[in-house]
Amino acid sequence: MNTRSVRYALPAATAAVLALTLTACGGTPAGGTASGKHDPGATVSIGSLYEPQNLDNTGGGGQGVTEALHGNVYEGLFRLTDTGKAEPLLAAAHQVSPDGLTYTFTLRDGVTFHSGKKLTSADVKYSLERVIAPASQSARKKNLSVIKTVEAPDPKTVRVTLSQKSISFVYNLSYVWIVNSAAGDLRATADGTGPFRLGKWTRGSSLGLDRATGYWGTAAASKKVVFRYFKDAAALNNALLSNGVDLVTSQQSPDALDRFKNNPAYKVTEGNSTTKLLLAFNDKAKPFTDVKVRRAVAAAVDDKKLLESVWGGHGKLIGSMVPPTDPWYEDLTSTDPYDPALAKKLLAEAGYADGFTFTLQTPSYDPHPTAATFIAAQLADVGIKVKINTITPDEWYTKVYKNKDFDATLQEHVNDRDLVWYGNPDFYWGYNNPQVTRWVDEAERSSTPAEQTELLKKVNRTTAQEAASEWLYLYPQIVVASSRVSGYPLNGLNSQFHAFGIKKS
Amino acid sequence: MARYLLRRSALLLLSLGLATVVLFILLRMLPGDPANALTAVGATDEQIAAARAAIGSDRPLPEQFTHWTGQLLRGDFGTSFVSSLPVGPEIATRLQVTLPLTAAAFLLAVLVAVPAGFVAAHRRHTWYGSLLSGVSQLGIAVPVFWLGMILVAVLAVNARWFPSGGFPPDGWADPAEAVRSLALPVITVALVMSASLIRYVRSAALDVLGSDYLRTARALGGTFRGAMWRHGLRNASVPVISVLGIELASTLLGAVVVESVFALPGLGSQLTTGISQHDYPVIQGVLFVSTLAVLLIGFAADVVQRIVDPRLRGGLAGGPR
């Protein structure tokens, strides 16, 4: 799972800066049909930019560990599907007490770990407690800290008591790996229940998965899957062009697409991503404390033209923080129209008829510098001067995210359900509307998903109307694959990449 | 010679000691905090403080330094902040890529440059002599990453003769595969390196060709070939050896670039990743090993020079140094 809500990308050849890049991708197996006969003994090579730091998703393993191991080597009580729904996996059934505070899970029969040990409720208890332990770096730790106690009354039953109602609890459980409680240190080894077992991991290069024998469900379609890691998109695409890899989990270089489109040896598919590019204002710093100023900036930027120039027509426009895969999605693009005349009017009303000057903190990697230049040119048209300050991901983290020392910044936020950050006045962008905070809290304590959805729609509309940030666009989720493979995930959800359905001919 | 070796070794150790101090301090001057890489978004100040305490980056610098050097003396490179895995074994694995790459590129470059440089000097008035000079001049101007990208585009992506990048997941278990993966990077580095070597060999050879002793040797009845073997090559090799040492060292350090172009899991890419994550133990470990390698190369070049050129051994006055 993503350990960060914001994405750091890898600038390539420069030897110095870089951090971990978190895109969202994943979903259920789909993909086109491959010509030729499926070879169950095949090795599928998957090219990726996101190498795991270690193999533990509660130990700072990063996005890559989710991509490679989540759902493939490790399974949860629930699995997140392509449409963002949590479906039962290792939990055969579950009941919720009338007060919504006690969840009782019954485990699936006949599940064993790769080491041969039988799955019991003790492993589930251990795994859940591991995620919320003080040393845990799990991205869902905060959400799952509503867990008060975990009990294992018998080997097949797990009872979880929450300190308060949490409508997202089951959904959040889809992020939790069930690990063998006796496995010990999982940073360099793995012991899960999934369709693949860990093969050879060569740091800096590749991570292999071998089909697990005795898997409780449908066996993996291919004998072996190897994730091969690259530092930049160009090297990754070259590997695809020279048969070094069979597919690329997430295409980050729009310029390369032309080489694959119209080429019968490749298939290019575009799914839904959850990665949003934002111009985030510091809503606590003048002049962005003023809703009119924020709306003026939003109206002065032609998002469509920006998306066109960066992604050549791929991707989507969004009028808010909510991607179409979230249940509370509404098309709010009309709330954030491109209208320079409106921008000037709003600026005059706010007392900035002659414009103003601000510094835009711009992460050094693509597409931020391009977007910053574009935005600066557009804002100049309405009299706003933009000073672009290019910073490394690490500087961004310290200066913007931690110290909140900025006027405005560019950043990408990769996860689904990111809207709820607007309910936290202490988040880096400082948006503070007590009504919104209340709605977000109430939504989490809802009794039904419908109630939750209704409240978060209110949050969505309000933040959009108040231009809490300027949401520039939603990234495309592009998978490029050799036409010899099929059955790979198309959509982008939270970095997972289910490889068990991939067939190669 | 024994006294020289002893003195030279002492100097080497001193340089290594100084280098460790410098790299340790420089590293701490980098902006950013390693604890950031270790904590999730939304981490509280307490969590960040705990992360600092866990990796020891909250201790006084002298204490951190003595801890690190103490470990080094025991042959322990410490534990990565980010992966919590030991650094030493990973450096060893990565050297299995970087060392063969550097060594093969160096050998290939020498094999190409020495004869080519000599021909460029001896036959400088012919068309191929001039061509060699011209091409080598051009080669010096070519950046490694650019040449690498061109070779990938032509020989890997279009012709599909070589893999475009990466290293076999099983490493050297299948030597043929490993060699194939290293072929293009080796060619890339060797081409760039030989370009500058040709220039050095050519000018060293020109010095020799115009020297009095060669003319004297020939005047005394020696053939050109005989005179070259007896006197010329030995004299020409002295400056070339020191250049070779520098070239070898810079290739090792330049591995960062070529490893990035070819997605090779070598020392260079380990360093890049380490820097991006403020993973001090990794950066320190890699830089220490590279520094040691560079110092050893310089040491070896000096010793070889003294073996080749008796004037350097200090017995005769009036030598070049």
From TrEMBL, chain A:
<feature type="signal peptide">
    <location>
        <begin position="1"/>
        <end position="26"/>
    </location>
</feature>
<dbReference type="InterPro" id="IPR030678">
    <property type="entry name" value="Peptide/Ni-bd"/>
</dbReference>
<keyword id="KW-0732">Signal</keyword>
<dbReference type="Pfam" id="PF00496">
    <property type="entry name" value="SBP_bac_5"/>
</dbReference>
<dbReference type="GO" id="GO:0043190">
    <property type="term" value="C:ATP-binding cassette (ABC) transporter complex"/>
</dbReference>
<dbReference type="InterPro" id="IPR000914">
    <property type="entry name" value="SBP_5_dom"/>
</dbReference>
<feature type="domain" description="Solute-binding protein family 5">
    <location>
        <begin position="86"/>
        <end position="416"/>
    </location>
</feature>
<dbReference type="GO" id="GO:0015833">
    <property type="term" value="P:peptide transport"/>
</dbReference>
<dbReference type="InterPro" id="IPR039424">
    <property type="entry name" value="SBP_5"/>
</dbReference>
<dbReference type="GO" id="GO:1904680">
    <property type="term" value="F:peptide transmembrane transporter activity"/>
</dbReference>
<protein>
    <submittedName>
        <fullName>ABC transporter substrate-binding protein</fullName>
    </submittedName>
</protein>
<dbReference type="GO" id="GO:0042597">
    <property type="term" value="C:periplasmic space"/>
</dbReference>
UniProtKB/TrEMBL annotation, chain B:
<dbReference type="GO" id="GO:0005886">
    <property type="term" value="C:plasma membrane"/>
</dbReference>
<keyword id="KW-0813">Transport</keyword>
<keyword id="KW-0472">Membrane</keyword>
<feature type="transmembrane region" description="Helical">
    <location>
        <begin position="282"/>
        <end position="304"/>
    </location>
</feature>
<dbReference type="GO" id="GO:0055085">
    <property type="term" value="P:transmembrane transport"/>
</dbReference>
<dbReference type="InterPro" id="IPR035906">
    <property type="entry name" value="MetI-like_sf"/>
</dbReference>
<feature type="transmembrane region" description="Helical">
    <location>
        <begin position="140"/>
        <end position="162"/>
    </location>
</feature>
<keyword id="KW-0812">Transmembrane</keyword>
<feature type="transmembrane region" description="Helical">
    <location>
        <begin position="97"/>
        <end position="119"/>
    </location>
</feature>
<dbReference type="InterPro" id="IPR045621">
    <property type="entry name" value="BPD_transp_1_N"/>
</dbReference>
<dbReference type="Pfam" id="PF00528">
    <property type="entry name" value="BPD_transp_1"/>
</dbReference>
<keyword id="KW-1003">Cell membrane</keyword>
<comment type="similarity">
    <text>Belongs to the binding-protein-dependent transport system permease family.</text>
</comment>
<keyword id="KW-1133">Transmembrane helix</keyword>
<feature type="transmembrane region" description="Helical">
    <location>
        <begin position="182"/>
        <end position="201"/>
    </location>
</feature>
<dbReference type="Pfam" id="PF19300">
    <property type="entry name" value="BPD_transp_1_N"/>
</dbReference>
<dbReference type="InterPro" id="IPR000515">
    <property type="entry name" value="MetI-like"/>
</dbReference>
<feature type="transmembrane region" description="Helical">
    <location>
        <begin position="238"/>
        <end position="262"/>
    </location>
</feature>
<protein>
    <submittedName>
        <fullName>ABC transporter permease</fullName>
    </submittedName>
</protein>
